[in-house]
Each structure stands twice: as C-alpha cells, then as structure tokens.
Known about the structure:
The chain is of the alpha/beta class and about 220 residues long. It has helices at about 10-25, 45-60, 85, 90-105, 130-140, 145-155, 170-180, 185-195, 195-205, 205-215, and strands spanning about 1-10, 30-35, 65-70, 115, 120. Strands 1, 2, 3, 4 and 5 form a 5-stranded parallel β-sheet that branches. The radius of gyration is 17 Å and the shape is globular.
Amino acid sequence: MKRVVIIGEGPTEQEFCKDLLQPLFNEYQCYIQVPKIKKSQGGIVHWNSLKKEIALYLEDRSVYVTTLLDYYGIESKHEFPKWDEAQNIVDKTKRMDFLEQAMADDLDSSVRYRFIPYLQLHEFEGLLFSDVQVIEDNFELNEFNDLPYLKDTELHYLNPEDINSGKGTAPSKRLERIFKNYNKVVYGSLLASAIGLGKIRSKCPRFNQWIDKLLSLK
Length: 218
C-alpha cells in the first residue's frame, strides 16, 4: 500500500482529507497521513520551517509528501522560494504552477521526486462553493445570514478556485457572511461532504489535477 503525507494548515484540511479523500484513495490502495504544519498557530509558516518538515517526512523513502496550503495567507515575509518573482505572473494558475515548481526545486534533488507541492488557489474554502444549490438545500433558511450573497458568488465565479483573496471577500470571509455562527472546522467537512468530492473535482480544475497526480503515484 502506498503512503502519502498531506501537510495541511489546520483541522479543517485534516477533516476534509480524512472524510473525503481517504475513501477515494482506499480504492487505489493508498493510505494518507494528514499532519498539521508544525509550529503553526493555524496558518502558514516561514518556508524554511516548512521545508525542514517536508524533508523530515521524506527521510522515509517509502512515502510521498504533498501539501494542502492556501495561497491566501502566504506573504513575502514567509520567504517562499521565488515569491517576489511569482507576483509578476498575472495568470494565477500559472503563478501557482511557478511557485509549486520553485518549492520542489528548493528541496534536495535526491528526494524531490517524492514531493508533490500543491497550493490551493485562493483558499481551501473556495472548494465549498462548487455547488451552492446543495448548500442551500442542506441548511434551513434560519441558518443563513445572507443567502443572496451565496448565489451572487456563484454567478460571478464559474470556477470556485477563482474566488478572490481579498480580506473581506476571500472564500472563508464570504462563508462567514453567508452563514450565522459559521464554524470553519465543522462547516468545512460538512459542506464538502454534502457537495461530494466528484462535484468538487469537476468544478475545480487545479484541485482535480492534484488529486489525479496523487492517485497516479506508483
């Protein structure tokens, strides 16, 4: 059985991986391990710290290592490789590809082939907008604070990965506005399960490409 270590930022990503990814990966004889970033208070850390953690997992020659990190939240101060250069790339998909390649290139060449870097554009919670009708159908009206904003977001973003990373309009901020008493960890897994991994993959091409890559590991 293959093993893949998915380093995520917090419990939301951990629950998502356990509840939705592991059942699919079981079909491919692949076990996933989902640690949180060490020395994190629930967010991203300096690249050097993360790089050391990645390298530590890669010391086990039987595992592959990947990341599930939000692009939203990474800043220049975190000193990800080629960060400033990447900001000149207008196309966000190409920018993510560039940054991921830079992350891989910064690891030792002897283990690099077992590292599959992944940055979620713009934020994990963007995936939760893959089917807003499912969201509407699974919650009572009195649980919404701003239901029209949910529909408005769908109309403006055919690809949920394009939902922007503004401080007030990032996917997680939108969910906070849409729902009363929004709980990031509880709602993350709940919404993703209601929508289903198949729908999420069909609506989010970069995310789907990452999953395909992991499932194809030998």
